[in-house]
Write a structure and sequence with these properties.
The complex is a heterodimer of chains A (381) and B (257).
Chain A (H helix, E strand, L loop, with lengths): L1 H6 L3 E7 L5 E9 L4 H15 L3 E12 L1 H16 L3 E5 L3 H8 L3 H10 L6 H35 L6 H40 L6 H39 L2 H7 L4 H38 L4 H11 L2 H27 L7 H31 L2
Parallel strand pairs in A: 2-3, 3-4
Antiparallel strand pairs in A: 1-2
Helix pairs in contact in A: 2-3, 6-10, 6-12, 7-8, 7-10, 8-10, 8-11, 8-12, 8-13, 10-12, 12-13
Chain B lengths: L6 E12 L2 E12 L3 E6 L5 H8 L7 E6 L2 E2 L5 H10 E4 L11 H12 L4 H14 L15 H12 L6 E5 L7 H18 L2 E5 L3 H7 L2 E6 L4 E6 L1 H7 L3 H16 L1
Parallel strand pairs in B: 3-8, 3-9, 6-7, 7-8
Antiparallel strand pairs in B: 1-2, 1-4, 4-5, 9-10
Helix pairs in contact in B: 3-4, 3-5, 4-5, 8-9
Classes of the chains: A alpha/beta (381), B alpha/beta (257).
The complex binds adenosine-5'-diphosphate (ADP) and magnesium ion (MG).
The site of magnesium ion has 4 residues of chain B, from helix 1.
């Protein structure tokens, strides 16, 4: 520690104005990464204060000079050159001069010109708006491409990679079953419990059953299932395809004439389209079971509950929910794969893709759910 | 080494850019049927970029690339597939499909494009693996192979459909000298016996002298070609000192080593 403190006193800088009007800086001692900072500030100060036409650096006193010191000398050269003024470095020991000579001021000045200037707030807002619009356009056209490929796959079932489909189905469906069941069970339970208390005031506790079945079938069953699967599988798709992109595997597929959309996206989206509605049915069921637990504890019998449910529920209701879940499935599969295929290069790229797959998926699911709400309202469902 | 010099790939006034960032500015060259054509240059000068445009992964910002007379970037559907079946690509990173075994990687394009029996596909795949010295690794996953083995497996996969143009992006980077020399011999054998055209991106001077019929040298500063010709000629007679230096320096160090 002591040597460190001492180091910073090992170098010195003094300035003088010569008779010919030039500014002279006498730099001496040891210029290394510990000592240069102080000298740098002082030197810049002097130069900026005087903005000399001619700057003379007397470097004869420098007995050690590493990269930091060279950078200081170079910075002074750059500064003078950019301002169209002169600089002369005197007495720099030969070995340091060689280090300095590796850098040409021209290269650095040019490089700086290439950097676009700082943008103002309007430009930034405009740019990001454009980005969002372009993103949106890209999303839509990608999902359109997936749709076309799905139709093609239906007409040519032999072109589908069924092995991939089965593996993905297991991943989306079988492995997600327990968590979907648990989440929907708890939702049914909590909803029944929370609504039972106000309903009690009107002596309408039995109608908790109606509430549960309508809410689950039309809204919460499809939605909760979609959320769970989105969190599990959209991210998995994005990670898998993103890694393939980074490893040039997507390029390899393309040059083998195997369209990534047909080859990778179609089996995954198909698996989502098949498994998510099935999961939704189970989710509905477990939501009702959650409601049942509360109803039993309120003193109703299973038969009463089931009767109440069957009188309240309609097939249309169930179907309306399932149609929604099919659309959700398309979003989950499509967005997950899309974000994966769009992965850029670099270590954090795959992580970015998985994050945005989940977020974009969630937002689109909620948005579409709202649209369905309006449509179903007008259809009277 | 064909005497007739029939061009199989023509690159005409080709410019490559990522967004506004121009990497290659207006270059033209031809690759002749049956030759081993080497693209070299410092890292980041755009060698892979040129290669990826030649195989149709990106569209040129300007100009045209014709493979066997057809514009790959402008093609689509069946036409594109026809061009793609003529070429094989071994990527810089190998790009083996990580979820498949080596054998499955090789079989993939056979399954997609031929009506061979499964046994025949296996046999063809195993023979390709033998060619690159990877017999016995067919049931391994790519992650179980070393980097050099992955590259050779990628070359075997690129040859699965017996394409008549093979593109190799830095095939010997990261290989030990012996394996690298074997790879050179393999390339030469395939080029001479099967008349396969090779487009190879590489830095390895020994390998360039062994395999290259012609080279082009790219340079970042001019965003284009600084030299074209036979490596020996460039070494001895190039009027660009930098090019001479590149070819000679390595020879010196080779002698020293
Ligand atoms: N996908 C890409 N997007 C944007 N820039 C890229 C991309 N790929 C390469 N580049 C840039 O293009 C230049 C040339 O890259 P590349 O062709 O990979 O060089 P080489 O293969 O000669 O080392 C580099 O500056 C690199 O940063
Ligand atoms: Mg490269």
């Amino acid at each position: 520690m002591e040597s460190y403190v001492k180091d910073s006193n090992l170098s010195s800088i003094t300035s003088q104005v010569n008779s010919d009007g030039s500014l002279q800086l006498n730099i001496a001692g040891r210029l290394d990464s510990n000592t240069t900072g102080k000298i740098w500030r002082q030197a810049k100060n002097e130069v900026e204060k005087n903005s000399p036409r001619n700057l003379v650096i007397d470097a004869s006193g420098i007995n050690y000079c590493d990269g930091a010191g060279i950078a200081l000398l170079f910075e002074l050269q750059l500064h003078q050159q950019k301002a169209g003024k002169e600089i002369e470095i005197r007495g720099l020991a030969n070995e340091f001069q060689q280090l300095l000579d590796q850098f040409k001021a021209g290269e650095f000045i040019e490089a700086e010109v290439e950097v676009p200037g700082p943008s103002n707030i309007f430009e930034k807002v405009g740019r990001s708006t454009l980005d969002i619009l372009q993103d949106f356009k890209a999303n839509i056209s990608f999902l359109g491409e997936v749709m076309v490929s799905l139709f093609y796959a239906m007409l040519h079932p032999r072109s589908v990679r069924w092995k991939d489909f089965l593996i993905t189905s297991e991943l989306i469906g079988v492995n997600a079953f327990s968590i979907v069941a648990l989440v929907c069970f708890l939702i049914g339970l909590v909803m029944a419990f929370q609504s039972a208390i106000p309903m009690q005031q009107y002596g309408a506790q039995l109608f908790v059953a109606n509430l549960i079945v309508i809410a689950m079938f039309k809204e919460l069953g499809p939605l909760m299932t979609a959320w769970v699967v989105n969190g599990r599988s959209a991210s998995a798709f994005a990670a898998e395809l993103g890694t393939m992109k980074v490893n040039e595997e997507i390029d390899a597929l393309t040059t083998m004439g195997l369209e990534p959309v047909r080859f990778l996206v179609v089996p995954r989206v198909l698996a989502a389209l098949v498994m998510i509605p099935i999961l939704t049915i189970f989710g509905n069921l477990f939501g009702l079971i959650g409601g049942l637990v509360v109803m039993l504890s309120l003193g109703f019998s299973v038969v009463t509950y089931v009767n109440q449910i069957t009188s309240a529920a309609t097939y249309v209701m169930l179907l309306a929910g399932l149609i929604k879940s099919v659309v959700f499935a398309f979003i989950i599969g499509g967005v997950g794969c899309m974000e994966g295929l769009r992965t850029k290069t670099g270590a954090s790229a795959v992580g970015d893709s998985t994050t945005s797959a989940v977020v974009v998926g969630l937002v689109m699911i909620i948005f579409v759910d709202g649209v369905f709400g309006v449509i179903y309202y007008f259809l009277g469902i | 080494m064909s005497g007739d010099k029939e061009p199989i790939i023509r690159v005409e006034n080709f410019t490559a850019a990522y967004g506004d960032n121009v990497i290659i500015d207006n270059i033209s060259f031809e690759v002749y049927r049956g030759e081993v054509f080497v693209i070299l240059g410092g890292s980041g000068c755009g060698k892979s970029t040129v290669l990826k445009h030649m195989i149709g992964l990106y569209e040129p910002a300007a100009g045209k690339i014709l493979i066997d007379g057809e514009d790959i970037a402008a093609s689509s559907g069946e036409d594109r597939l026809k061009i793609l079946k003529k070429i094989g690509v071994a990527y810089q990173s190998g790009a083996l499909f990580g979820s498949m075994t080596i054998l499955e990687n090789l079989r993939l394009s056979l399954e997609e494009y031929t009506d061979l029996s499964p046994d025949a596909m296996d046999l063809i795949s195993l023979m390709k693996l033998k060619l690159v010295g990877l017999s016995g690794s067919e049931h391994k996953m790519p992650s179980e192979l070393s980097g050099g083995m992955q590259k050779r497996a990628a070359l075997a996969r690129a040859m699965a459909l017996d394409p008549f143009i093979l593109f190799l992006d830095e095939p010997s980077a990261g290989l030990d000298p012996i394996t690298s020399a074997e790879l050179d011999q393999l390339i030469l054998r395939l080029a001479r016996s099967l008349k396969i055209t090779f487009v190879v991106v590489t830095h390895e001077l020994p390998s360039i002298y062994t395999i290259a019929d012609r080279v082009i040298m790219l340079d970042k500063r001019v965003k284009g070609i600084v030299a074209t010709g036979k490596p020996q000629d460039l070494r001895d007679h190039s009027d660009n000192p930098w090019v001479r230096q590149f070819f000679n320096r390595e020879v010196e160090s080779e002698v020293a080593a």
